[in-house]
Fold each of these.
Amino acid sequence: MEITAGTPVLVYDGDCAFCTSSLRTAERVLGTDGWASIPFQFADLDALGKFTAGAVTPERVEREIVWITPSGKAYGGAAAAARLLLRTQRLPWNVLGAVALLPGVRVAMAALYRLVAVNRHRLPGGTPACALPR
């Protein structure tokens, strides 16, 4: 997968059933035109760390999804999800992505993302393997 070829990449936890099923739902609903995904377990994290000037670390990708742009900018958590929605360029998803990035909404979305992430092992499809590291 060549990020610099113009395709943003979403890095996620492939060991987490909740994360994987959420991603598969997003792929089905949003389509995959113009973006790619890879579990962090199969990503070259050293190369991604260098490409993103240290913004992608093993600790970060264990705790949140990370959206990496072709220019090397990395967005995590709720901001990554918003960037994915914006990338679809289809209503209503792109509008939801834009709204999620508004200043007041962004803070609320980040809090909601953290709440879901911390409890992902308790959510439908979640397993003990989904629990975040302490």
Amino acid sequence: MSVVTSRPTTRGVVFVHSTPSALCPHITWALESVLGQRVSLDWTRQPAGPGLLRAELSWTGEAGTGGRIASALRGWDNLRYEVTEEPSPGCDGSRWSHTPRLGIHHAWTSASGDAVVNEDRLRTAIAISKGNPEVLAHEVDLLLGAAWDEELEPFRYAGDGAPVRWLHKVG
């Protein structure tokens, strides 16, 4: 007798904060490839960047889908995005942030959305600092993705009030 195990189901959101219009179909195709279903994004003007567009998509899928989405979008020039994945049984929540200048950053997240730093990463930051509080502050900022937050914040703010399309996969 074989035992079939399924991965926990979770959900999250893809925030495409800014992209040139030429990338829109490629982003849609990448999302469809990962999610295994047709995706329709409502592209709207991104006020924080002339000629740029933005979109949001809520998704439901197996745990780990957020990482696959973030990987599928990584590496394109002029694309700013964030992908969130909510915690699920046996799996931590996560947030991936990407900017053209900084690349991608991953942080585990608590149920309330706060970044969570595991003890090994924190011990490494303390060791690197060698007691220097300025170095430690810099290392903690790296762990929390402060530079990504700073760079993305104008694009996040510009998206306030934008529509969110909910995508649910049943079965």
Amino acid sequence: MEDTDASYVAFVEVAWQRHLRLAILLTGDRHRGEDLLQDCLVRIYERWRRLARADDPHAYLRRMLANGNVSLWRRLRRERLVADPPDLAADRTADRHPDAELLRHALLRLPPRQRAVVVLRHYEDLPEAEIAGILGCSVGTVKSQNARALAKLRAALREPIFERNG
């Protein structure tokens, strides 16, 4: 049992760093991304003995993240209006590209399914067939969602609100 727990702890230490950015990009929010990743890692622990023998538990986790996010946005599909929006902490990473924040805001404007396709295709560099399997749709749907999302991103990044003042 201790070997199983030690291998799970080692997996989590690697997985947290490796998959946190994916979770944040999928959810559009750091806190929701951390929650999603943590929930998936807890569910993986429940199945760890079987998953530890699998070829790639990271691929399983990636699929869980994408499916978990799809389930989340299906549940939270309705917009909730509030009188005062919450304050959002800015991520101030020194080595970020100057346009990274602009791209992040443009990604957040995409529908969740298109955002998932773009993130899995261009950030995780997964093939279209694997993305289709993760999202439970056809390869053609992945291709069309990717094309629509990229067109929206290009258009959004040309809008005046996204232009830099410098």
Amino acid sequence: MYGFRRPTEADIALVNDWIARPHVAQWWIDGTGGPSEPIDADILQEPDFNTWIVSLHDRPFAYMQDYNPHLYTDHHFFDRPLGTRGIDQIIGEADMVGIGHGTAFIRQRVAQLFAEGTPCVVTDPHPDNARAIRAYQKAGFVPYGEVISPEWGPSLLMECKAK
């Protein structure tokens, strides 16, 4: 249903525009609690880090990334099974928020990761981001452990395991 394509350098400005929008900047934050730094083209070259532009009917509306947390021994998802993928995403277009698209495209991408052999998918929304937490729960994620505070702020650990 949703299209996932790799972003190009030409898409960086679009993603950064989305990151700066108030409904995204509120949650896509850095270690000071402020809006995250803009992304640059280097993110397209990160090892074992996949970035995606998500679209519906050829309309780009979201950015998603998945990564291998086992590349970083101090990562808070390092204790999950080998092969685990971490995910993060934003819906950049405000008119696409709150109507089920987040749950649906997360579910679709997670199903693809499971089909590729991923045993577990993890994410870490801000514990006050009730909308994101509900979307993840509807997509099959469950909270585990305690709320942690990495450099970008409080995070609720959530996972979805392959069946």
